[in-house]
Amino acid sequence: MKRKVINVVMGLFVALFSMVGCSTNFSSLKTASNNGYEIIVTQERTVMDLAYKAITQQFPMDSVSKMSGTDLGYTWVHQPLIDQTSFKFLIEKHLGEIVNGSKVEGFSYHILTSGTRMFEESLNVNPLIEKFESLLKQGQIEKITVVKLKPILSTSQNNVPENITTSNEDLLYINLTNLKKLLDNGTITKEEFEQQKMKILSKK
Questions:
Q1: From the CB of residue 40, how many other CB atoms can be counted at a distance below 10 Å?
Q2: Cα–chain-centroid distance for residue 156?
Q3: Distance between CA 85 and CA 153 in Å, rounded?
Q4: Contact 109, 92 (CB under 8 A)
Q5: Distance, CA of 25 to chain centre
Q6: How much is the pTM?
Q7: Which residues, 6 or more positions from 190, have their beta carbon under 8 angstroms from its beta carbon?
Q8: Domain residues of the chain, as ranges?
Q9: Are 106 and 41 in contact (CB under 8 A)?
């Protein structure tokens, strides 16, 4: 009798989740520190290719399609048994502001799910994030922390924060770090680096 009651309760629990549905929403813009936001600095083709590679590694049996219209990213449905989950891997292009108003273009990404399968975040979303981040590191794809941010091509407006500001101490650290990255990757010359560094330090 006790076992029957437990089975009935579990059945009602599963049925409730099936009717209500399960959804998750991850944004890479939420992961940066120092009151700034990290964006991926690379070509659109590269970030799209790496996203597709990560998705197909995590979901080798699923059919993955590009988003339609002006949206960047991919969509697919995962249905291992009865329950199914719709996935969207959205890629958004941004114009970020770093040292003294200098601009840099980059990308953020967002993973959205909706469906009837429980625990999708731990089962698939987090592993997918880990795979994508690992591919970025393997490809030595650079990330830069920006102080102000606005979308160039919007795919998930609700996930994009408003322009932000930082404390003077954090801003100094962010600007000097980003300036050195720009020197290292050849975006600016040594002379431009020294000029910008003096401007930053003079405003300390």
A1: 22
A2: 11
A3: 26
A4: yes
A5: 10
A6: 0.68
A7: 183
A8: 20-165
A9: yes
